[in-house]
Amino acid sequence: MYRVLIVKITSIDRSVINEITNHLSQLGFHVDVLSQIEHINISYFDWQRSQYDAEKILEYVSSKFDKFPYDAIIAIGEIDAYARGLNFVFGLSTKKFGTVFLVRLKNDFYKKKCNFELFIERVKKEVTHELGHTLGLGHCSNPTCVMRFSNSIAEVDNKSASFCEECRAKLNINNKS
């Protein structure tokens, strides 16, 4: 069983964390949550873009938590972030370390009425997607697999929150959500 650590890089409602941990547990992962918030440096913020640099945050998380005995560490924050060559990212990952940025997963970002259930579903998908990357999975061509690449919120909404059979086999996990 893979061991996953969730790290909050901003304040996040406990119900959101509970939904994430329950979802990942149902998929067959052992999940722990770091109790304190790991505040990120304001120097990672690009004042011209009004966004955080996702690569700098990922680099920080990788160096700070490198010695922690987990298979995957996912940092989650209520921020908007970008990566080189992209206007924004929902998340970013390397082997073992991942990040998920919540701002663009909310309906209010798109000037629509906020729907908490839809927001939670999107968060579960993006956390699971980045977790898959931390464990060595690439993007999947299956249109419903959580590992399908998402370049828009519509693409996030169109995939499931679970790994397809092929991706589960690669991870050697049998649980279905």
From TrEMBL:
Active-site residues from the entry: E130 (proton acceptor)
Keyword tRNA processing: no
UniProt: Zn(2+) 2 binding residues: C140, C145, C164, C167
Role, per record: Probable zinc metalloprotease whose natural substrate is unknown.
Keyword terms, alphabetized: Hydrolase, Metal-binding, Metalloprotease, Protease, Zinc
Protein name: Archaemetzincin
Source species of the chain: Sulfurisphaera tokodaii
InterPro entries (alphabetical): MetalloPept_cat_dom_sf, Pept_M54_archaemetzincn, Pept_M54_archaemetzncn_arc/bac
Top enzyme category: hydrolase
UniProt-listed PANTHER family: ARCHAEMETZINCIN (PTHR15910), ARCHAEMETZINCIN-2 (PTHR15910:SF1)
Domain of life from the UniProt record: Archaea
Alphabetized Pfam families for the sequence: Peptidase_M54 (PF07998)
Subunit structure comment from the entry: Monomer.
Record carries keyword Protease: yes
GO molecular function: metallopeptidase activity; zinc ion binding
Lineage: Archaea, Thermoproteota, Thermoprotei, Sulfolobales, Sulfolobaceae
Record-stated family: Belongs to the peptidase M54 family.
Binding site for Zn(2+) 1: H129, H133, H139
